[in-house]
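Input record, target 12 of the design panel.
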């Protein structure tokens, strides 16, 4: 098969796949001879395999002063491994149409590949090399660091990024969640190869991995390949503990002055984690207040008054804390009005709860959009990993719709009353907002 045709076939096979009702996705628990567990959705009808892996311990577990370490380290894992330098490693992936990636989040590191079945031996082998024998050659490190610094310079000039950094820092002062995963120019510039080797060496371990696989492979074949894929990794991870935290929201308004015609606004209050029994109730309320078209904030701010092109609010759950967070961008002269409307709708939802129609619409959206999002093998594999991370159980896909439907109006009114707090809503505004008075300086800004 030619290289061009292989790439065409791989692209063709990544069109919507398995976006079916829950009962059509049969998840099998596979345990390798060596004791490694993976969840598998076997699909012999398409000659493709997608594998996703997560390791606990992301940027929130970086050493102080080493911010950006997780991002730089994972960027370099496909830049050469074993006896293959960066160019040779990347050429091998391209020649075989294998898509291999590593990435980082606040709570975990992710890895995965997509490959045609005929190239699976090489895909498993190249991922094994990246996991166990990354090279961190100086030219690749210098190039990746330079690219990251260029990205940081742009990030520190974008209003949205400026607002995000200040908001997270204000929400989580003195906690790792308050630091940006991309670090600072100073922290990134000081990272060493030894830092990167130690960081991944503490996290890439057999007791710290979660695996999801979708595609043309049998349970027996997968079991054997799991042992080879993770051979050489230490048995146990050694990750610093990230403490539990409640975000710090006290109704403050922070303004970061920038000479731009439209202000960017982030706002939020405390939320609930995925493990909370009221998670779906909060998710439904998030859709009602700010989930997009038809939501209360969109109706009041965009549709009725034309103050913004878009406004959003929803739940952001992390392993150690959670927020209800939203954003809006509006002309400087209308920022004050937009902030007042956010507060008013927040208070109204708390006092009245949603309507029956809003509840039904939000439930339908949360159910339907979830399944529509499972539109290719990689997304399904990622979902298998996410379900494992949250400890939701292998039958979660069978239960999810019923759990959403089981949320009652009484639940929603109780949660809205107890959780949504307009007085605690905290705002970060980047721009020159008229009629907005800051109650405190934003983190990193002069008082």
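The sequence produced for target 12 reads:
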């Amino acid at each position: 098969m030619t290289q061009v045709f292989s790439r065409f076939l791989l692209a063709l096979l990544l069109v919507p796949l398995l976006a079916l009702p829950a009962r059509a996705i049969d998840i099998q628990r596979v345990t390798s001879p060596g004791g490694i567990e993976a969840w598998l959705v076997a699909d012999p009808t398409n000659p493709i395999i997608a594998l996703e892996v997560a390791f606990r311990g992301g940027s929130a577990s970086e050493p102080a002063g080493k911010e950006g370490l997780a991002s730089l380290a994972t960027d370099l894992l496909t830049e050469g491994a074993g006896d293959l330098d960066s160019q040779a490693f990347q050429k091998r992936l391209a020649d075989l149409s294998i898509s291999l990636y590593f990435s980082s989040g606040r709570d975990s590191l992710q890895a995965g590949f997509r490959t045609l079945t005929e190239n699976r031996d090489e895909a498993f082998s190249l991922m094994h090399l990246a996991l166990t024998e990354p090279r961190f050659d100086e030219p690749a490190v210098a190039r990746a660091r330079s690219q990251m610094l260029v990205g940081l310079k742009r990030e520190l000039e974008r209003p949205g990024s400026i607002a995000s950094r200040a908001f997270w820092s204000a929400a989580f002062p003195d906690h790792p969640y308050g630091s940006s995963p991309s670090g600072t120019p100073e922290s990134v510039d000081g990272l060493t190869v030894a830092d990167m080797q130690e960081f991944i060496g503490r996290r890439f371990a057999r007791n710290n991995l979660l695996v999801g696989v979708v595609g043309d492979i049998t349970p027996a074949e997968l079991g054997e390949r799991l042992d080879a894929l993770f051979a050489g990794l230490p048995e146990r991870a050694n990750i610093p503990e990230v403490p539990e935290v409640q975000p710090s929201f006290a109704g403050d308004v922070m303004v970061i002055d920038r000479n731009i015609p439209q202000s960017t606004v982030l706002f939020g209050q405390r939320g609930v984690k995925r493990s909370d029994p009221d998670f779906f109730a909060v998710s439904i309320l998030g859709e009602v207040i700010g989930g997009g078209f038809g939501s209360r904030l969109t109706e009041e701010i965009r549709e009725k008054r034309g103050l913004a092109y878009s406004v959003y609010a929803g739940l952001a759950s992390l392993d150690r804390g959670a927020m209800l967070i939203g954003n809006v961008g509006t002309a400087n002269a209308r920022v004050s009005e937009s902030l007042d409307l956010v507060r008013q709708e927040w208070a109204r939802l708390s006092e009245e709860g949603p309507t029956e129609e809003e509840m039904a619409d939000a439930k339908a959206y949360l159910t339907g959009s979830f399944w529509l999002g499972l539109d290719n093998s990689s997304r399904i594999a990622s979902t298998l990993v996410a379900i494992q991370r949250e400890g939701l159980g292998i039958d979660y896909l069978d239960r999810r719709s019923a759990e959403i439907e089981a949320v009652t109006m009484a639940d929603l009114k109780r949660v809205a009353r107890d959780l949504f707090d307009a007085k605690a809503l905290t705002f970060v505004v980047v721009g020159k907002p008229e009629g907005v008075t800051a109650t405190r300086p934003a983190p990193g800004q002069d008082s």
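Residues 32 and 223 are 4 Å apart (CA to CA).
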